[in-house]
Amino acid sequence: MSKPRVAVVFGGRNSEHAVSLMGAGSVLDAIDRDKYEVIPIGIARDGRWVIASAAQSYAIEAGRLPEVDASGTALALPADGGSLMAYDAGTIPVELGAVDVVFPVMHGPFAEDGTIQGLLEMAGVRYVGSGVLASAVGMDKAHMKTVMAAAGLPIGPYVVVRERDWRLDRERVIKEAESLGYPVFVKPARAGSSQGISRATDRASLEAAVELAREHDPKVLVEAAVAGREIECAVLESLGDEPPAASQPGEVRVEGGQDFFDFEAKYYPDQMSLDVPADLPADVAERVRAMAVLAFQTLECEGLSRVDFFYTPDGGIVFNEINTMPGFTSLSVAPQLWAASGLSYPQLVDRLVQLALSRSPGLR
What pathway does this protein act in (predicted)? Predict the structure, then answer.
């Protein structure tokens, strides 16, 4: 019998391009080649799909972020989910065969936001992770907060800054944001990996922060600062009929002197540490785990997610956000949480592929 064919897809047309490559490199190193046939597929910044070359770099080297090498053999995925087709200029397309499951190690717009999931749904191809709706709502932090608040999860105060309002009624928007009280955190509504996030302490820095966030997304979120410890919990779908499982909660500590858990703290060496399990009272840890599962189920997630909270000095737990495809290097938070909970990185990769293979294409 032939081995299941897994296409590991990475890159994309957004500011999290490099983060995707770093995660894909870890997946490609960990996936069991005796069990699966693996095809590494990169999506270049211009949207071109290519077979990754043997020389493709997936790591930060000499301070430079990795990028998909667009010179590889171009690929096309037929709309009917048939065989991958490879083609180069002036050559006859070559059929590469069908793919059993796609592992989209991708983040941000045109990737984690339901777009690639919709493409794969239309083609009838199984894939790792959440479906179109969960991915789209999870990506848009404004809609995510609305849905989670409706489910009863505690949400911190925030203001949504929409493109039209910022252009036509900026003074009102600024006053609404200032009503949250300084400091505030300003972020693109539909981005991740701390791209475009700033801490604002006055009007001038608030305006500058909104403009920076708008470089990534015309829709911006301004959030009141929440005093508390940053606690994260990963959730994993069951292979059977059991409910989703939550990992041990972990606490993120920024070690590099940054004001918050920014891009460098997340992806550069020696900039953060993770305490697993977090030093929490037993009942608080169980509340965090239960709330993480509630968030996962509320969004109807599949595969895995990472859910972020703040634990406040008065013993409260505030929901921050859910990531339907969290950072996925072997040293990223979600894999570390599962490793500390007894599931190694290669086992986690295998579980996610098996979950995808167990699902039927189409509505579910």
Answer: Cell wall biogenesis; peptidoglycan biosynthesis
Query: Taking 90 as the threshold, does the pLDDT of residue 337 lie above it?
Result: yes
Q: What is the pTM of this model?
A: 0.89
Indicate if the pLDDT at residue 79 is higher than 70.
no
Task: Give the max Cα distance, the chain.
Answer: 67
Helix (H) or strand (E) holding 125: none
Helix (H, G, I), strand (E, B) or coil at 265: helix
The two beta strands, 126-127 and 272-275, are: unpaired
Angle CA 282–283–288, to nearest 5: 100
Say which amino acid occupies 183: P
Reduced to 3 states, what is the DSSP secondary structure of residue 96?
strand
3-class SS of residue 101: strand
Task: Report the candidate in 9, 273, 221, 244 with the shortest Cα–Cα distance to residue 119.
Answer: 9
CB of 217 closer than 8 Å to CB of 196: yes
Cα angle 268, 207, 166 (rounded to 5 degrees) comes to 115
CB neighbours of 182 closer than 8 A, spacing ≥ 6? 200, 201, 202, 206
Q: How far apart are CA 186 and CA 205, in angstroms?
A: 10
pLDDT at 348 over 90: yes
Say if CB 53 and CB 20 are below 8 A apart: no
